[in-house]
Amino acid sequence: MAGAIKTHSTVAILLLFVSLSALLPFAAEAARCDGLPGGTLLIHESFADCNRYIACQHDTDHEWYCPTGEFFNPRNLQCEATCPTGRETLWCAGVPDGAFIRVPPTQAPNCQQYYTCFGGNMFLNTCPQGFFFSQLLQACTFSQDDC
């Protein structure tokens, strides 16, 4: 009887481990909306597709498209007749003041740097030596996992 219980326990632990392992890649994948409030609208990282944008809900990125012939303007948070110029500097447009974002996709990846957003403007910050920025936690941490 003890052998049967041990076998069932081993199988249960193995199934739990396999289930958790399957979730890890999804949990560790960084999203643009990590740590940002629901309802935040962000410029899409593809500049060729000016009609696309990201809507944040529950730390999840949801991709949306403007109606045909309209383009997303992150300054006004709406679809308009023309594509705004200078899109590469608009990463903080639509982001609440005081929120932190990781280095935009148009820049070289750097887990120690991040930006503070105020009035749609980006202000560069650097974590102390040995710390890494976590957008999800909105702080510098010891772990590179959220980078």
TrEMBL record:
Top-rank taxon: Eukaryota
Signal is among the record's keywords: yes
A single GO molecular function term of this UniProt record: chitin binding
Gene Ontology cellular-component terms listed: extracellular region
SUPFAM superfamilies: Invertebrate chitin-binding proteins
A family per Pfam: CBM_14
SMART domains: ChtBD2 (SM00494)
Domain Chitin-binding type-2: 30-79, 89-147
Signal peptide: 1-30
Keyword line: Signal
Keyword Hydrolase applies: no
Name recorded for this polypeptide: Chitin-binding type-2 domain-containing protein
Organism encoding this protein: Anopheles merus
